[in-house]
Write a structure and sequence with these properties.
binds D-xylitol-5-phosphate; 8-stranded parallel sheet; single chain; alpha/beta; binds zinc ion; TIM Barrel
């Protein structure tokens, strides 16, 4: 059984008390920190930037799970690949040569991932699968937190998981988007292993982050109802 991992989406943290939230994430030994990088082109939104990643990386010894929702991906790989043990996932449809982008990421000893836009079919990226370390399957449209899961996403997740397993690939399978208390177990049972946790679970408004992380883990372990 693969280890199930939690990757809190830091754009959902309390920006006015970020250090407090980070201290909780560190104390709770979360597996990754999911950072959405947006350029206002691939998605009509902006989020975190390189300096934010540097500050985060200098403070918390937790691998950065960098989700590039940007165009001109290759141009920025050297900058983002400087973070020890980081994952860099990008949307392959923005690259003319996504295989080269994967090789470029790996040439900096970072882990390479592709992020699957809800409208992208597995058929169009199947030749990339042998070379990636992680696949991030989006269950909401890229660019914004607090959305609802797109109907049919769980079936798509299952389809991609089955495709990957049938070919014996060993990448991690991440799910990103409305990983809510109600969706969490369904996503786990569909084969997700890494869970991007945001406003619909651990960072829910008015919630207790520490207790929510513990609740998230116990639901994943199947010891608590959702
Ligand atoms: C899509 C979002 C994620 C995540 C946020 O990349 O920006 O950061 O879905 O969590 P939710 O969907 O729970 O607000
Ligand atoms: Zn993301």
């Amino acid at each position: 059984m693969n280890i199930l991992k939690i990757s809190p989406s830091i754009i959902c943290a309390d920006f006015l008390n970020l250090k407090k939230d980070l201290d909780i994430l560190i104390a709770q030994k979360i597996d990754y920190i999911h950072i959405d990088i947006m350029d206002g082109h691939y998605v009509c939104n902006f989020a975190m930037g390189l300096d934010f990643c540097k500050a985060l990386n200098s403070y918390a010894d937790i691998p950065l799970d960098i989700h590039l929702m940007i165009e001109n991906v290759d141009e920025f790989i050297p900058d983002f690949a400087q973070f020890k043990n980081c994952i860099i996932s990008f949307h392959p449809e923005v690259c003319y040569h996504p295989m080269r982008t994967i090789q470029l990421i790996k040439s900096y000893s970072a882990r390479a991932g592709i992020a699957i836009n809800p409208v992208l079919q597995i058929e169009s990226i199947k030749y990339l699968l042998p070379d990636i370390d992680i696949i991030s399957i989006m269950t909401v449209h890229p660019g914004f937190a607090s959305q609802k899961i797109i109907p049919g996403s769980l079936e798509k997740l299952r389809e991609i998981v089955n495709y990957i397993h049938s070919r014996g690939y060993s990448m991690e399978i991440e799910v990103d988007g409305n990983v809510s208390w109600q969706n969490l177990l369904k996503m786990r049972d569909a084969g997700a292993q890494v869970f991007v946790a945001g406003t619909s679970s651990i960072f829910e408004k008015g919630g207790d982050l520490r207790k929510n992380i513990m609740r998230f883990r116990s639901i994943l372990k199947g010891v608590e109802k959702d």
